[in-house]
Each structure stands twice: as structure tokens, then as C-alpha cells.
Amino acid sequence: MNHGITEEFLDKIYKLTKQFFALPAEEKQKCARETGNIQGYGNDMILSDNQVLDWIDRLFLTTYPQDKRQLQFWPQVPVGFSETLHEYTMKQRIVTEKFFKAMARSLELEENCFLDMYGENAIMNSRFNFFPPCPRPDKVIGIKPHADGSAITLLLPDKDVEGLQFLKDGKWYKAPIVPDTILINLGDQMEIMSNGIYKSPVHRVVTNREKERISVATFCVPGPDKEIQPANGLVSEARPRLYKTITKYAELHYKYYQQGRRTIEAALI
Ligand SMILES: O=C(O)CCC(=O)C(=O)O
Ligand SMILES: [Fe+2]
């Protein structure tokens, strides 16, 4: 996609992410998540005793709106990390707006139709993922199968190491590596707004024995005050409404994810 973010800039994010995860543990711990808080650095959150943990370390930061930032979790090292993340966030805002408008036009809807539902108070969360080499890739997964709970996700997958796979017709397909490209993944809330015309794909990340892998996913989530529902123009007798009106979907999503269930089922009429 022609997103107006240069390859050099994406490369900078890629390098800073690698540098952050390469820091000694005690340095990363300065950004450590506190119990009950999703923001910060840590491994997979534990919600139940029988949960199978994902093979992953991550740094999760709310980047937008700016007053939702918890800057105590933003790394001081590597130098430039926080400034670059701020810059990336502002660039991503522009991409998001263009994308929602293009999606509306593609369905012959009024241009701001999705953007209005997404809202002025929409939230952006950036998750920096690190998958260490895994001695048992046959047994352990990096991120369990899921569809994103966002409206859309801007994803920067690793430039060199594969791992991301998409499910189609019961089979897993590898996402090809395309360096310095933002992959826009549709989340469940886009599926709902489009009344199921666009689907949020199920995907997972597999581990490998030799190489570490990183990725940066920015989840673009409608404002907590917003009601998300199929756009009026996409509901007709021929195509009845498929989804309920939902709010705060992202909160529900995490619980469903850890139980290995698809959240979208909760939204189906
Ligand atoms: O690591 C990747 O390529 C995908 C990450 C992902 O699916 C997620 O963070 O939701
Ligand atoms: Fe995902």
C-alpha cells in the first residue's frame, strides 16, 4: 500500500524494536507491566491456571490519544525509541484515516461512514512482539490462532523470519515476507461494520528452532464511547443484518482469545 511512510522510517522502527528486546533483562524490566495492567513489558498475561502460554515477550503501549499514554512504560533506551514511536503513531493516524475512507468507497458508502463509527476518540495500541527461538516448535506456538479484536491492525512483520500464517478453508498459509511494508489486517470490528462483507482473518504465529523473530502490531480500536454496528447502507432484505450493536469489544476479546474462542460469535445475531 502506498502509505507515505518511508522504508527508512520503517527500518528505524524495526531496528529499535530489535535493540529493545536485545537489552539485558534488568533494563527491559524498567518497563515491566504491573499486575492487572496490560501496558508495559512482559510475557503472555495469565488469566487462568490451565492456560497454554504463548511463546512470546512483548511490550504493549497505548500510543493514542496522547493522554492515554502511560509514559513510565515507554523505554528510555534504545535512545530515540519513544520519539520514533510518537512519530510513527502520528503517521499511522493518517494511514488509518485514508484506509477507512478507501474501505467505505470500495463499498459505495459515504466516505466517512466507517471513520465516524471509529470515532475521534479511537485508541491505538502498539504491541512489540518478540519470539525467542523455541526448542519445540512442534509443540509450542508464538501466538495462538485468533482474529484481531481491533477495527484494523497495522502490522510490521519481521523482515527475515517467517512465522505469520493465515487460515483459509481449513488450511494454514504462510504470509510471504515483504520487507518494509505495513500489512493491514482487518479486525472483527471491521467485519461487523461491513456487515460481514469483509472478514477478519484467523491467523497465528508459529515458532522456529533457530531464529528469533519480532513484529510490531498496532491495533486501531474504536473509541470506548462508540457503538459499532453494520453500516446502514450494507443492510437490506437481500443481505440482512448479521451482527448486533457492540461497544468495548476489545475488552471482551482478550478473554475469548485466552479460551481459544472467536469473539465474533458473541456479536452474531
Ligand atoms: O507477529 C506477527 O506477525 C503477527 C502478530 C499478531 O497477529 C498480533 O499481534 O495480533
Ligand atoms: Fe493478530
Automatic annotation (TrEMBL):
Residues 119-222 form the Fe2OG dioxygenase domain. It comes from the Eukaryota. Keywords: Dioxygenase, Iron, Metal-binding, Oxidoreductase. GO terms for molecular function: dioxygenase activity; metal ion binding. Transmembrane segments: none annotated. InterPro entries: DIOX_N, IPNS-like_FE2OG_OXY, Oxoglu/Fe-dep_dioxygenase_dom, Plant_2OG-oxidoreductases. The keyword Metal-binding applies. Belongs to the iron/ascorbate-dependent oxidoreductase family. This is Oxoglutarate/iron-dependent dioxygenase. The lineage of its organism: Eukaryota, Viridiplantae, Streptophyta, Embryophyta, Tracheophyta.
